[in-house]
Specification:
Elements: H1 12-47, H2 59-68, E1 73-82, H3 92-98, H4 103-106, H5 112-115, E2 122-131, E3 135-142, E4 145-152, E5 155-160, E6 165-170, H6 196-205, E7 211-221, E8 224-233, E9 240-248, E10 254-261, E11 269-277, E12 295-298, H7 300-309, E13 333-336, E14 343-347, H8 364-371, E15 375-379, E16 382-388, E17 393-397, E18 401-405, H9 409-419
Parallel strand pairs: 6-12
Antiparallel strand pairs: 1-2, 1-11, 2-3, 3-4, 4-5, 5-6, 7-8, 8-9, 9-10, 10-11, 13-14, 14-18, 15-16, 16-17, 17-18
């Protein structure tokens, strides 16, 4: 019992004071409860203070706002995080693309086709600048190094400060015609998105009867008011859960892009501006002179060879250029299904699948390694292996067919059975 409880029996003012103290023992908790209740009531308001109060807009109006955006000048910093569920590519992508890691023999480490594929894994910080359709620049910031890709008129330069190698080609933006309207993206190969707008355009290509498109509130991105456009597949079977695009409320430029997997977990792709300025970038942003001693590779011949070799796409959306679209060179490819559940069927040259011990293609001791590649599956089509990422999955059958798409492994098996 608390010491003050005894004063109640002593009468006089001591009893009055004690009564006040006793009352206070009950009043204070009630007051705290009241403050707590009021605070709980304020939580939603406090939590939403970062979401601007903007005029209502429909999904169709927001899509039209993106399409009608005439903003052709901007600069800023973009953070891209990609988690496809595969090991970080790091410099491996460049090494494989060039046939080795010695730029002098296998190709330039500044080659955009090799370098930009590194964005397919890990977290990267980019600086971007755009001034109309003929001037773009993107720089990938690395530890004590920087990779820059610059398009100015009919000149395209790339420079890797780590290796002091430069890459030069002419004829406009790398991989695209110089006459195209500015797309607020970097002068990268067109199948490698580098800004929220480039990602959003790929996703919007998939919008159709199989797609749900809604507006889900507002947000603040890089200090700008934005609407949130949400794109979702209507049918099951796709590995893509949803795509959210934060669209600048004033000028219609996508500021942030987030792709979630249907299996949950962290974002597969999260690309957004952390800083953005729509003023005219400095002219010096688009000028480049190779530093003294830099090794310069002319890229026209290499580019023509890559185009002859076939599609290079990293696209992860149905209908986008690249994977699943049956690009140039994929003459034996066909598309099964439509929309988000589209699957590309490709016949491998010679009609052969992975080598196996039974076929005598590999020694018995190597079979254990091969067995660790993918999951063994079977069906009416025969047997094969499924290779999985968080978005794109592929089934390679033993008779040399490949089924690939942003769909579940079960959907791939079903497609292979239907095609048998």
């Amino acid at each position: 019992m608390a010491p003050n409880d005894s004063v109640e029996s002593n009468g006089g003012t001591r009893g009055t004071a004690g009564g006040r103290r006793r009352a206070a023992r009950y009043i204070v908790p009630v007051s705290v409860a009241g403050v707590a209740a009021a605070t709980i009531g304020l939580v939603p308001a406090l939590a939403s203070t970062g979401d601007p109060d903007l005029p209502k807009i429909t999904a169709q109006q927001l899509i039209e706002k993106i399409a009608a955006s005439d903003t052709e000048r901007l600069s800023g910093t973009v953070k891209i995080s990609t988690d496809l569920g595969i090991p970080s590519l790091g410099g491996l992508a460049g090494s494989f693309a060039q046939g080795g890691d010695d730029g002098g023999k296998g190709g330039s480490t500044a080659d955009p086709q090799a370098k930009m594929t590194e964005l397919a894994s890990g977290t990267h910080t980019l600086r971007v600048a755009v001034d109309g359709p003929d001037k773009q620049r993107v720089s990938i910031l690395e530890n004590a190094a920087e990779y820059s890709l610059i398009h100015n008129g009919d000149q395209v330069w790339a420079y890797d400060s780590k290796s002091n190698q430069a890459y030069h080609t002419t004829g406009g933006r790398a991989g695209q015609d110089s006459g195209k309207k500015a797309e607020h993206s970097a002068p990268a190969p067109e199948s490698v998105p580098t800004t929220p707008k480039a990602f959003a355009e790929q996703a919007l290509k998939a919008a159709g009867p199989t797609t749900s498109v809604t507006v889900d509130g507002t947000a603040r991105v890089a200090g700008r008011d934005a609407y949130k456009l949400v794109i979702k597949p209507k049918e099951s079977g796709s590995t893509i859960g949803s795509v959210t695009v934060a669209v600048d409320a004033q000028n219609g430029v996508p500021l942030k892009f987030t792709l979630l997997s249907s299996s949950g977990g962290k974002a597969v792709v999260d690309a957004g501006f952390t800083k953005v300025d729509f003023a005219k970038p400095a002219a010096s942003s688009f000028t480049f002179t190779p530093p003294k001693g830099a090794e310069v590779t002319e890229g026209d011949d290499a580019k023509a060879q890559r185009e002859a070799d076939g599609p290079e796409g990293l696209g992860m959306f149905p209908g986008a250029d690249g994977l699943g679209a049956g690009g140039s060179g994929a003459k034996d490819a066909k598309v099964i299904g439509e929309g988000w559940n589209a699957i590309a069927e490709i016949r491998t040259p010679g009609g052969t699948g992975l080598p196996s011990k039974e076929s005598g293609d590999v020694p018995a001791e190597a079979q254990q390694f091969l067995d660790s590649l993918g999951d063994k599956v079977s069906g009416k089509f025969g047997s094969g292996r499924v290779f999985k990422t968080r978005v794109v999955n592929a089934l390679m059958t033993d008779d040399g067919r490949v089924y690939v798409g942003a769909v579940t492994p079960d959907a791939l098996v079903k497609a292979a059975d239907g095609a048998s």
